Amino acid sequence: MITPVMPVYARANIEVDHGEGVYLYDAAGHKYLDFAAGIAVNVVGHGHPHLVKTMQAQAAKLWHTSNLYRIPEGERLAERLRENTFADTMFFTNSGAEAWECAVKVARAYQGAVGHPEKFRIITCSNAFHGRTLAGIASTDQEKLRKGFEPLPDWFKVVPFNNLAALEAAIDPSVGAIKFEPIQGEGGVTAATQEFMRGARALCDKHDLLLILDEIQCGVGRTGKFFAYEHYGIEPDVMCIAKGIGGGFPMGACLATERAAKGMTIGTHGSTYGGNPMAMAIGNAVLDVVLEPGFMEHVTAMGQRLEQSLLQMIPNHEDIFVNEPVRGMGLMRGIKAKVPSRDFVNHARASGIMAVAAAGDVVRLLPPLIIEEKHIAEAMDKLSAAARSYPVAKAA
């Protein structure tokens, strides 16, 4: 008999009861160092006093009105994001998938508005993850996402990530945008090269295409910059964000320049819940924390410390980990395993640490951005303990 909750998740048999700071506690009383953060969501940890206070105050005031009326907290959040990013305007959503879908519509509407409706396709990159909607899975070349749902929309052309020549070769009269993640999270914590990012920007300028970045996982301070594109010295035309911007509350946004959004007029898009008063209040509370002077510098310092610590740990467990450079930036890190990463992540929970598996047998480490050096030292102890106790037969 099918379960009441649709059986689409391979959930761990852990009933998480509560969280505090960088720790989670299950119903049995076990304590876990949270280096998963709800898959890069809980940027300020669990139970952050400012977020809790904000939620309680807003809950007593107003939860939902729909977008029939002005939402002052949303206007304030939009203005703050505009002041701190490339964007001139934005659309608030409930999730990253919705933000990603909005970006597709922005690209289509832009090309229509400038007289080129035939430029409807978008170039994306191999090994990417853009959510589970039909358009999202159509934009990938991953059979595990596409299988069982074909035929899918023929709107995308997939090229190898970090291959600028292939990207340029894929541009034809049907292409209107280029869209990819600055750091592929699910795809193995692989960062775009400077050449690829700058080259993509130049190609978009040359061919009047929109450069769309998916910063759903790598944005909101995770790399040591507010958004990862800042590491590359370029600006996108459109950007999808979610996860960290809500600090655990479901929300996202599609950010755009005025030029890119010229086709988005009254009636072209909408959402019942997107930009609701509760989400907007919490989004502002998150920005109160992550935009504080010194916060990004802290993330950068902790990211460097985590990288150094991992480089010291990996050679001690060469039967489990591949001795290669640590992947990613800031506090979005990945280490390649010689064993199935999902198996190792599951095994590591017994040592009191939560991590996330990624493609290519990469173990993803996505801690709250408030971690301190002592938490990194604790993480190394727990990862080492997990590596030592990992069954030899499995590793072989």
Mean pLDDT: 96
Provide the CATH topology of the largest domain.
Aspartate Aminotransferase, domain 2
Cα end-to-end separation? 37 Å
Largest sheet: 7 strands, mixed
Kindly name the structural category. alpha/beta
Going by CATH, the homologous superfamily of the largest domain would be Type I PLP-dependent aspartate aminotransferase-like (Major domain)
CATH class designation of the largest domain: Alpha Beta
What string gives the helices and strands in order? EEEHHHEHEHHEHEEEHEEEHHEEHEEEHH
> How large, in whole angstroms, is the Cα Rg?
21 Å
CATH architecture of the largest domain: 3-Layer(aba) Sandwich
Helix content: 25-40%
As laid out across the biggest beta sheet, the strand order is 4-12-11-10-7-5-6
What is the tally of beta strands?
17
Shape: globular
Instruction: Note the beta-strand portion.
Output: 15-25%
Briefly say what this structure is.
The protein has 396 residues and is an alpha/beta fold.
How would you portray this structure in words?
This protein has helices spanning 37-40, 49-61, 72-84, 96-113, 134-138, 143-146, 164-169, 194-207, 277-290, 295-313, 341-348, 373-389, 392-395; strands spanning 16-20, 23-26, 31-34, 89-93, 121-125, 156-159, 175-180, 183-184, 190-191, 210-214, 238-241, 252-256, 327-329, 332-336, 353-354, 356-358, 362-365. The chain has 396 residues and is α/β, with parallel strands linked by helices. It folds into 2 domains: 16-34 and 293-395, Aspartate Aminotransferase, domain 1; 49-290, Aspartate Aminotransferase, domain 2, CATH 3.40.640. A hairpin with a 5-residue loop joins strand 8 and strand 9. Helix 10 (295-313) packs parallel to helix 12 (373-389). The radius of gyration is 21 Å and the shape is globular. The two termini are 37 Å apart.
